[in-house]
């Protein structure tokens, strides 16, 4: 009986002390940053040009430039003049967990927006559009017909991805070879160079990025087929699910002109190929 009375008193105390009730509620991302002075960001090291390690083992890529815009925006809106930054390496497998477990406030990478996800996260507005294509050797152009069955051809793909499911449905007679881990895409492109597989499927922007890192030139060493991608993919930043204030701040960055300056900086010679895919996907959606 004494315990019940104590619980009743505690409940009444919080009911008539709204400030204490608010403190008991979960902090928003911006409230946490204002309290701690720390913004926690997640970035990949296997997704050139969005996130990767440079020759000195430092993080680099489009996502790092996007983070700079977000940090500056937070500094403008925060009560703190100094905001410390902590970068955490994310992967294809742990990216959602890092946000759900509040280890990071935001994750940036080639994250396909999926409205049907049952995870306790949400995506930002799209910050990039691309599509699924196959990377092949130039000399194989005449023998690989993506309108056919690709019967008995060996197609490389990253394990447990939407691309793998797409290939299984579209080309059930093809032989799929799954690559995994943070070096999966790199090894897949190497397998093309070494004639161990016939094609490697992934998002076209990631294929272009990895081929470029390996010193391969589009139209000289390799091709992307089909010309119109097999599907269209929108990338979004991963955010906590129930934080509209944080989502609004991040989306305001995505809509700024500075984002286009970042793309011009990174894409250079392959920009026409990227625009071609983006235009196709925009026309398809409209």
What would you note in describing this structure?
- The model is unreliable at 1-24 (pLDDT under 50).
- This protein folds into 2 domains: 28-127 and 236-255, D-Maltodextrin-Binding Protein, domain 2 (3-Layer(aba) Sandwich); 130-232, D-Maltodextrin-Binding Protein, domain 2 (3-Layer(aba) Sandwich), CATH 3.40.190.10.
- It has helices at residues 2-15, 18-24, 29-36, 62-77, 95-100, 162-170, 184-193, 204-213, 244-254, 258-267, 271-285; strands at residues 38-43, 46-47, 51-53, 59-60, 84-89, 106-108, 121-123, 128-137, 154-158, 175-179, 199-203, 222-225, 232-235, 238-240.
- The chain has 286 residues and is α/β, with parallel strands linked by helices.
- A hairpin with a 3-residue loop joins β2 and β3.
- α4 crosses α9 and α4 runs antiparallel to α10.
Structural shape? elongated
Into which percent range does the helicity of residues fall? 40-55%
Whole-number average pLDDT? 87
Report the count of strand segments.
Answer: 14
CATH topology heading of the largest domain: D-Maltodextrin-Binding Protein, domain 2
Which series of helices and strands comes N to C? HHHEEEEHEHEEEEHEHEHEEEHHH
Any idea how many domains?
A: 2
Name given to the CATH architecture of the largest domain: 3-Layer(aba) Sandwich
**Residue ranges: pLDDT <50 for 5 or more in a row?**
1-24
Radius of gyration: 23 Å
Number of helices: 11
Topology (SSEs and partners):
Layout: H1 2-15, H2 18-24, H3 29-36, E1 38-43, E2 46-47, E3 51-53, E4 59-60, H4 62-77, E5 84-89, H5 95-100, E6 106-108, E7 121-123, E8 128-137, E9 154-158, H6 162-170, E10 175-179, H7 184-193, E11 199-203, H8 204-213, E12 222-225, E13 232-235, E14 238-240, H9 244-254, H10 258-267, H11 271-285
């Amino acid at each position: 009986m004494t315990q019940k009375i104590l619980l009743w008193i505690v409940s009444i105390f919080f009911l008539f002390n709204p400030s204490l009730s608010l403190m008991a509620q979960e902090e928003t991302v911006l409230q946490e940053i204002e309290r701690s002075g720390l913004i926690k960001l997640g970035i990949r090291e296997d997704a050139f040009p969005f996130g990767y390690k440079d020759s000195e083992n430092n993080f680099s890529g489009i996502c790092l430039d996007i983070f700079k815009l977000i940090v500056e925006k937070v500094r403008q809106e925060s009560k703190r003049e100094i905001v410390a930054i902590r970068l955490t390496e994310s992967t294809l497998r742990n990216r959602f967990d890092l946000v759900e477990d509040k280890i990071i406030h935001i994750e940036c990478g080639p994250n396909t927006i999926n409205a049907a996800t049952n995870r306790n996260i949400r995506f930002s507005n799209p910050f990039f559009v691309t599509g699924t294509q196959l990377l092949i050797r130039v000399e194989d152009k005449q023998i690989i017909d993506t309108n056919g069955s690709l019967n008995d051809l060996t197609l490389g793909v990253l394990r447990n991805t939407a691309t793998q499911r797409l290939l299984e449905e579209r080309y059930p007679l093809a032989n799929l070879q799954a690559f995994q881990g943070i070096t999966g895409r790199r090894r897949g492109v190497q397998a093309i160079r070494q004639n161990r597989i016939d094609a490697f499927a992934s998002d076209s922007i990631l294929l272009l990025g990895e081929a470029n890192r390996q010193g391969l030139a589009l139209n000289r060493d390799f091709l992307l087929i089909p010309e119109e991608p097999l599907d269209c993919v929108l990338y979004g930043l991963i955010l906590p699910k129930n934080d509209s204030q944080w989502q609004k701040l991040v989306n305001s960055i995505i809509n700024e002109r500075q984002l286009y300056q970042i793309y011009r900086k990174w894409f250079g010679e392959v920009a026409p190929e990227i625009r071609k895919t983006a235009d196709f996907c925009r026309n398809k959606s409209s």
